[in-house]
Specification:
Number of strands: 0
Largest sheet: none
Shape: globular
Radius of gyration: 16 Å
Low-confidence stretches: none
Strand content: under 5%
C-alpha cells in the first residue's frame, strides 16, 4: 500500500498508512522506511524524517544502505551540512556500508548545493583510501 501511494505521489497518504501500521504494532521493513523518509522529504517535513530515522535506529532496525543515503540526501536538501558530515563519519565506521556509494552520494549532495570544494574533498578521500578501484 505504501509503495503504491509513493509511486502515485500521494505522499501524505503514504505517511498516514505508515503511522497507522506503527500504531497497530507492525515493524516496517527497510524499504518501507526508505519510502516514508522520501515522502517526508517531498513534503519538506525534514524534522519528522529525522525523528523517524532516529526512532527506528533506537528500536534496533537494521537499515539498508539506501535508507542511510536517503537520510543524507534529506540533510543535504535542508542544507544541514553538519549533519551530513556527522552521518558520513558515522557510516564510514560501519563495515556493512558500501563505501564507494557512500562517497559518491555525499559528493553529489555537495555538488547539488554548489559546494564544489567539499565535493572535491570527498572524492579525494575516496581516491586516497583506494575505494575508487573497488
Amino acid at each position: 500500500m505504501i509503495d503504491l501511494f509513493s509511486r502515485n505521489r500521494k505522499y501524505a497518504n503514504c505517511i498516514e498508512v505508515f503511522e497507522k501500521m506503527r500504531v497497530a504494532g507492525y515493524f516496517p521493513a527497510s524499504n518501507v522506511i526508505d519510502l516514508v523518509l522520501n515522502a517526508f522529504g517531498k513534503l519538506r517535513e525534514f524534522e519528522k524524517a529525522d525523528a523517524l530515522y532516529r526512532e527506528m535506529q533506537e528500536e534496533g532496525c537494521v537499515f539498508s544502505d539506501e535508507v542511510h543515503f536517503q537520510m543524507l540526501s534529506l540533510y543535504g536538501a535542508r542544507k544541514d551540512f553538519k549533519m551530513v558530515e556527522a552521518l558520513f563519519k558515522r557510516l564510514m565506521c560501519d563495515p556493512n556500508i558500501n563505501k564507494k556509494e557512500l562517497h559518491l552520494v555525499v559528493a553529489s549532495i555537495y555538488e547539488r548545493s554548489n559546494r564544489l570544494n567539499d565535493a572535491s574533498r570527498i572524492m579525494n578521500k575516496m581516491n586516497e583510501r583506494g575505494i575508487l578501484k573497488s
